[in-house]
Amino acid sequence: MECGKSVKIWLYRGGLKLIRKSGIGKAWEHQKSALEKTGVAYTQKFSFDYDIVQLNTIFPDSVLAALLAKVMRKKVVYYAHSTMEDFKKSFRGSDFLAPFFKKWIRFCYCLGDVIITPTKYSKELLEDYGINKEILYLSNGIDLDFFNRDEESGKSFREKYRFDRKDKVVISVGHYIERKGIEDFVELAGRIPEYQFIWFGDTNLKLVPDNIKKAVETKLPNLHFPGYISSEELKQAYCGSDLFLFLTKEETEGIVLLEALALKIPALIRDIPVYEGWLFDREQIYKGRSLEEFEKLIRDILKGEVPLLTEEGYEKAGERSIEKIGEALKGIYSNVFEPEKSGASRYSYKNI
């Protein structure tokens, strides 16, 4: 079956309003763009002529969509964005609920004929859950056409937030949750008062533990929490900043990191397992493990005492372009319709 002409995808969008501001919302947009750029037919609404339903959320309506597909003898591609590990250290009570969350997502993902998750690391986590379905790993991708460095955008960012040309600006992006490393971000702002620290993102403070609420409400002259901003504004922020500081403690990939690399901004991240094997310390990026390491590396990078590595980082982001993701998805869709194919895996596609 030639995917580009005869397979039709139901790109299910149920529940997206709830997670529009999250990485899952961005991942859905990337999938939509990938299908468009590679000529795969798709619909966002239910129709009887679809061949595969593609799910991204674990809400009950997604489960119903998967069950409906099975009744209609359609195929199910389930994107596994969430794990128990990245559910922990998020909202009030998340650690207590984590084992139950694990059972629920295992049930959801097992409804898929194939499961796609963003990285080899998240694939290995899911395999440890005892999921007996084919699990593939494929990056969420990055839109290099949109995230294209523009110096004028950077100037607009600095003008809006009243940063002087000489100011050194450190940014991060994410929800106000412990897992994202927000407490360390605030601590580093206090340790390095000569640099500006700005965190983009938003979470209802009623949903987070007191320690995170306290961190967000910290008053420092060089610490800023403007809240959620649009993708266009975020692009401006990347272009106008001097360092992307990503202190997350657990990820399945981290789309915002790909965005920063695509826009050629130096990046410093926490050294965690998800980035092993594809992002290497002092080759495309800088990695740290402690506050002391982060503080030293921030100073070294912003003083120009170490290479910026921005071109190397951009090359790594380019390996995960939307176009390449689309081509990989076409191969996966075709293979869904070949159950008789034998071998260790019947899915022929390039891991990205």
Looking at this protein, list some descriptive labels.
352 residues; alpha/beta; Rossmann fold; 2 domains; six-stranded parallel β-sheet; 12 strands
Quick structural gist:
Helices cover 41% and strands 14% of the residues.
Number of strands: 12
Query: What's the mean pLDDT score?
Result: 92
Structural class: alpha/beta
> What is the number of helices?
15
Biggest sheet: strand arrangement: 2-1-3-4-5-6
Which segments are poorly predicted (pLDDT under 50) over 5 or more consecutive residues?
1-5
CATH structural class of the largest domain: Alpha Beta
Radius of gyration: 21 Å
The first-to-last residue Cα distance is 23 Å
GO molecular function, one term: glycosyltransferase activity
Protein name: 1,2-diacylglycerol-3-alpha-glucose alpha-1,2-glucosyltransferase
Organism: Anaerocolumna xylanovorans DSM 12503
Pfam family, one: Glyco_transf_4
Could you describe the 3D structure shown?
Keywords: Transferase. Residues 157-312 form the Glycosyl transferase family domain. The longest helix is centred in the first third of the chain and has 16 residues, at 94-109. This protein is of the alpha/beta class and 352 residues long. Strands 2-1-3-4-5-6 form a six-stranded parallel beta sheet, with helices on both faces. It has 15 helices and twelve strands. The chain is globular.
